[in-house]
């Protein structure tokens, strides 16, 4: 919310600096409103203002698929299956990395 308030304030300040008291004239009011809107949108983009409600992202699960993951542990295959089960329970996309992906 704060980035939008800052953007609106910047838009109003830009209009007041550029048009001054002429902003009250009926002929200049639409132009001043468009200028305020343009400056507000540019400042909002630069400030990273959110465009809508935030949605929770699913977790990204990274699994080590290299040989060293199973080799260093007794019952390494069971460790790998446990890791896969945990990743499945976490939900979201799974990414495997390591030397045996090829």
Describe what this molecule looks like in 3D:
It is a single chain. This protein is mostly helical. The protein has 4 helices and 2 strands; from the N terminus they run ααβααβ. The protein has helices at about 1-20, 30-45, 65-70, 75-90, and strands at about 60-65, 95. Helix 1 (about 1-20) packs antiparallel against helix 2.
Provide tags for this entry.
two-stranded parallel ribbon, 102 residues, 4 helices, mainly alpha, 56% helix, single chain, rod-shaped
Q: Helical stretch count?
A: 4
> What summary fits the major beta sheet?
2 strands, parallel
Q: Which structural class fits the helix and strand makeup? A: mainly alpha
Helix coverage percent: 55-70%
* SSE pattern, N- to C-terminal: HHEHHE
- How many β strands by DSSP? 2
The proportion of residues in beta strands is 5-15%
- Chain-averaged pLDDT: 85
Which term fits the overall shape? rod-shaped
Low-confidence stretches: none
Widest sheet: strand order? 1-2
How far is the first residue's CA from the last residue's CA?
Answer: 46 Å
Radius of gyration: 27 Å
